[in-house]
Design goal:
Layout: H1 2-9, H2 40-45, H3 54-77, H4 87-109, H5 114-142, H6 152-178, H7 185-215, H8 222-243, H9 260-286, H10 303-330
Helix pairs in contact: 3-4, 3-9, 4-5, 5-6, 5-7, 5-9, 5-10, 6-7, 6-10, 7-8, 8-9
Membrane topology: Multi-pass membrane protein
Main location: membrane
Binding site for Zn(2+): 107, 261, 265
Length: 336
């Protein structure tokens, strides 16, 4: 570790917001900005440097590692390769890895240039949409009440989720390219409305189960307890994402630790953990009860849907990459 730390100490030091283009500014963040146009390895090794994106990157990396540990335990209990009823779980695993890998990479590498800033966060948005698709596949495969099975919503959930996964990437990319810093609140409406749309779809089976438990006296099982916690964590994430609290009240004091976006990441991490715990309990409790009586999951309704949405999002990112490139060519670079 000592040679690595000596190398990290030799990296280009961070600077204040006055020394970087306005595109990289964040509300109420004053210091800890990495300089642009550095070699790619600089941004990777800056994981061990003190800067204002360090904790954002680490929270996603830690979440990814913990999720991989959970996936390993799933593989030891379930036959993820040969059991067709595990295809939805494999699809959910794929999209969870996509979410954290895309988001980690965005926070790690976006400072390389203005164009890379746009592009990496478009990739981040694609990962968010893919995660929503994966959650939809999981919930409509393992976590729904029997009354939803075979209904219209059950039949169209995955195709609609594919469209919404791409919509998330499109809307968030529009919000990134269309607006300039300091961003207006309208930009967050673009983001929150698209993410809210796919979240509403994926959470319907859970809300129905909660309603049936409260209103009709259905059993409140351990899976539903985990689902309720994932909802609370997600709502907390939305609050910190949209509020800029606590740095709003103490500008410059939370540049490195305690920023609302870091808290947002932790809330999303907990949302993921509780979702995985909930799905595990749903599979364990309902596998023999009725899951095995469902139509066999299809490739196109699970992994195929993930691959299709991934391809479509690659196209979306490529288009908006070119739009961002054109924007940077015609607009003068501005600094505050």
């Amino acid at each position: 570790m000592m040679p690595i730390m000596k190398f990290v100490d030799s990296l280009t030091p961070t600077t204040t917001k006055q020394e970087v283009p306005i595109l990289f500014h964040e509300p109420h963040v004053e210091t800890g900005f990495r300089k642009i146009h550095q070699p790619w390895y600089y941004y990777l090794f800056s994981l061990f440097q003190r800067h204002n994106e360090c904790m954002n990157a680490w929270t996603h990396l830690i979440a990814l590692l913990f999720c991989l540990g959970k996936f390993k335990s799933f593989s030891e209990e379930f036959d993820l390769i040969n059991d067709p009823y595990m295809l939805p779980l494999v699809a959910g695993i794929m999209t969870t890895v996509m979410l954290y890998l895309c988001s980690f990479s965005a926070h790690c590498f976006h400072n390389q240039s203005e164009l890379m800033h746009y592009t990496w966060f478009m990739i981040d948005y694609a990962g968010i949409g893919m995660y929503g698709l994966g959650c939809t596949i999981l919930h409509y495969s393992y976590s729904l009440d029997q009354s939803l099975i075979g209904g219209i919503l059950h039949d169209i959930a995955v195709p609609v989720a594919v469209c919404l996964a791409v919509t998330v990437c499109v809307c968030c990319s529009v919000s990134k390219v269309m607006y300039k810093r300091p961003y207006p609140f309208t930009r967050k409406i673009w983001q929150l409305s698209s993410v809210g749309g796919i979240y509403f779809l994926l959470i319907i089976p859970i809300l129905q189960r909660i309603y049936l438990s409260i209103h009709d006296g259905e059993k409140w099982d351990s899976g539903l307890s985990h689902h309720t916690q994932q909802i609370l964590w997600f709502l907390s994430a939305g609050f910190f994402f949209g509020s800029d609290i606590p740095q709003r009240f103490f500008p410059g004091k939370f540049d490195f630790v305690g920023h609302s976006h870091q808290i947002f990441h932790v809330c999303i991490m907990m949302t993921t953990f509780k979702k995985l715990d909930a799905v595990y309990e749903d599979i364990r409790q309902n596998r023999e009860k009725y899951l095995m009586q469902l139509p066999m999951p299809s490739f196109m309704g699970t992994i195929g849907a993930v691959l299709l949405a991934t391809l479509m999002n690659i196209i979306v990112v490529s288009i908006f990459h070119q739009l961002a490139k054109s924007k940077l060519l015609i607009e003068p670079k501005k600094k505050e």
